[in-house]
Design a protein that fits this description.
Layout lengths: L1 E6 L2 E4 L4 E9 L6 E7 L6 E6 L6 E3 L7 E6 L4 E6 L8 E8 L8 E2 L3 E6 L1
Parallel strand pairs: 2-11
Antiparallel strand pairs: 1-3, 3-8, 4-5, 4-9, 5-6, 7-8, 9-10, 9-11
Length: 119
């Protein structure tokens, strides 16, 4: 079992920045790939960014590419999402999640952190 806890959300003006963190505990000795997802009110949850265990491979949704950066520090069991040039449409609850390759399904989820971008 892995427990995930997000932090760093808040209220920011459009054009601003936030950095989200996701701290993992429990069975962190396995080679989990990590991802960030978000869910806006009335919308389905969507993939935002993913990173391999080594950090060598990252991928992003088209809506955040060039503005958001995912990274990880395995020594701290923490994954980050640096969000720059934020837009009101980025407003959502952001979740981190873990999967164990080669499985594609994310099996562990955090409780989420709210990000609100005002115009």
């Amino acid at each position: 079992q892995v427990q995930l806890l997000e932090s760093g959300g808040g209220l920011v003006q459009a054009g601003g920045s936030l950095r989200l963190s996701c701290a993992a505990s429990g069975r962190t000795d396995r080679y989990y790939a990590m991802g960030w997802f978000r869910q806006a009110p009335g919308k389905e949850r969507e993939f935002v960014a993913g990173i391999s265990w080594s950090g060598d491979t990252t991928n992003y949704s088209d809506s955040v590419k060039g503005r958001f950066t995912i990274s990880r520090d395995n020594a701290k069991n923490t994954v980050y999402l640096q969000m720059n040039s934020l837009k009101p449409e980025d407003t959502a609850v952001y979740y981190c999640a873990a999967r164990l390759p080669p499985m594609a399904k994310y099996i562990y989820w955090g409780v989420g952190t709210q990000v609100t971008v005002s115009s």
